[in-house]
Design a protein that fits this description.
Layout (H helix, E strand, L loop, with lengths): L3 H9 L21 E5 L2 E4 L4 E4 L14 H13 L8 H13 L5 E5 L2 H16 L3 E5 L12 E3 L7 E3 L6 H4 L2 E4 L4 H10 L4 E6 L15 H11 L3 E5 L11 H6 L5 E5 L9 E5 L1 H4 L18 H15 L28 H25 L4 E5 L2 E5 L8 H5 L3 H13 L2 E2 L8 E2 L6 H20 L1
Parallel strand pairs: 3-15, 5-8, 5-9, 9-10, 10-11
Antiparallel strand pairs: 1-2, 2-3, 4-12, 6-7, 11-12, 13-14, 14-16
The structure holds ligand KE4.
């Protein structure tokens, strides 16, 4: 029976949702309508409470409604919500991003991760004068036409449209190779010498479930890109400020040519950004010929929520309101008493997330349920499979029906996981040891029920 809320939603909104994955198609049933959140919890329209590991698909690393962020938004609103002209706080957030990401000399704010990657592709094609782009099978970079492609057949792995409406002629300019396969990239660099504008990847995949980079893979992509004059675009929309304050580039020690960001950067408000070497970014209008624009780009509310979020990540303490206003974060290496690092935040996230990983693995072992967990910092995925998950093919081999049953069981016990085997769950600084214990307890019960049925 379709609930009244979903029926009403479907009357006015295509599919009843404003983003497909929210429709619960991968897990069955109807989407839960959320009415409010606070800290690590959300409540649905029936008043049911859940421990939230969706975190709005990644942005809410501080949990819902952090008092400092709410206060900052209230204060910003009183001065106005949007002016369509430069404001000082845009510069302030840009400065903090450039401090956190060595690759970013200058950047441009946009309103979503899709806008960020779409714009970065255009810029890379303009800067290199080349048309081909390379992406990894299973990586998702938003819904721009050139990135909605799937691996075609044959060695060249020419893209074929991944969605109706994407012109085949455009899809053919996107080459798709396996994630974690440096040899495939080396081969395509040779076969398409001088034709590839950029390679774009998630250094830690989060959109086929979480898959960490294989040892040496990122270094090989970096070296081959440099050798062949290909721009290396690291899509840090999900990993930025998630797997380290300086994202995957800090965690794995490499520097991309362009970086795309979103999610945490906006503290829960719509934001995206793309940035990199100034000689590349200077090609953007109005200084250069490459056009990109946006009515609400850099809007004060998202900028202020972003500044507060980054500041709180640099000054996290166990009592949320106690964090004093802190100067911008330094990287752990450059930290000093005057320039706090975000180390305490990421140590806390690591402690909570590793506890969750260990608990879930123990619960699965007790139930005799073969699972694998891939985790990088506070993002992880529980895969229903006996085999390691290292690329798209091994992710697709997982038992999605088993995941769906687990998801529904956990939901019934007040634990909100992402509604797809191919997504990441996120631990926030608002989660507690008690949340983790309750989650593991629920998993133990559900996995036991799955075993007995
Ligand atoms: P948005 O356009 O959704 O802000 O960002 C697109 C994007 C780009 N790059 C990466 C690595 C991303 O993970 C995303 C968006 N992530 C999905 C969750 N897997 C957003 C959730 C949704 O589509 O509703």
């Amino acid at each position: 029976m379709t609930s009244r809320l979903f029926q009403q939603a479907r009357r006015y909104i295509a599919g009843g949702v404003n983003s497909p994955v929210r429709a619960f198609r991968a897990v069955g049933g109807e989407p839960v309508f959320i009415r409010r959140g606070a800290g690590s919890r959300v409540w649905d329209s029936e008043g049911r409470e859940y421990i939230d590991y969706l975190g709005s698909w990644g942005p809410l690393i501080l949990g819902h409604c952090h008092p400092r962020i709410i206060a900052a938004l209230e204060e910003t609103c009183e001065a106005g919500t949007s002016f369509g002209m430069p404001t000082e706080i845009e510069t302030e957030l840009a400065r903090r991003v450039a401090e956190a990401f060595r690759a970013v000399e200058t950047l441009r704010f946009v309103n979503s991760g899709t806008e960020a990657t779409m714009s970065a592709l255009r810029l890379a094609r303009a800067f290199t004068g080349r048309e081909l782009i390379v992406k990894m099978a299973g990586c998702y970079h938003g819904h721009a036409d050139s990135l909605l492609v799937k691996a075609g057949s044959g060695v060249a792995t020419f893209g074929i449209a991944g969605s109706p409406g994407v012109p085949e002629a455009l899809a053919a300019l996107t080459l798709t190779i396996p994630f974690n396969d440096a040899g495939a990239f080396e081969k395509i660099c040779e076969n398409k010498r001088g034709e590839i504008a950029c390679v774009i990847l998630e250094a830690v995949a989060g959109n086929m479930g979480v898959i960490p980079p294989a040892r040496g893979w990122l270094e090989a992509i970096r070296e081959l890109s440099t050798r062949h004059g290909i721009l290396f675009i690291c899509d840090e929309v999900m990993t930025g400020f998630r797997v380290a304050f300086g994202g995957a580039q800090e965690r794995y020690g490499f520097t991309a040519d362009l970086v795309t960001m979103g999610k945490i950067l906006g503290g829960g408000l719509p934001v995206g950004a793309y940035g990199g070497r100034s000689d590349i970014m200077d090609q953007l209008a109005p200084d250069g010929p490459v056009y990109q624009a946006g009515t609400l780009s850099g809007n004060p509310l998202a900028m202020r929520a972003g500044i507060e979020t980054l500041e709180l990540l640099c000054s996290w303490t166990s009592s949320p309101t106690a964090s004093p206003a802190a100067p911008p974060c330094a990287s752990p290496a450059a930290a000093s008493p005057a320039r706090p690092s975000a180390a305490a935040s990421y140590d806390r996230l690591e402690a909570l997330a590793s506890g969750l990983e260990e608990g879930l693995l123990a619960a699965a072992a007790e139930a005799g349920e073969p699972v694998k967990i891939n985790r990088v910092g506070s993002m992880m995925t529980l895969f229903f499979t006996r085999h390691p998950v290292t690329d798209y093919d091994s992710a697709l081999a997982c038992d999605t029906d088993r995941f769906a049953a687990f998801f529904r069981g956990m939901l019934s016990r007040g634990v909100f996981l992402p509604p797809s085997q191919f997504e990441a769950l996120f631990v926030s600084l608002a989660h507690t040891e008690e949340d983790i214990d309750r989650t593991v307890e629920a998993a133990r019960a559900i996995l036991g029920e799955l075993r007995d049925h």
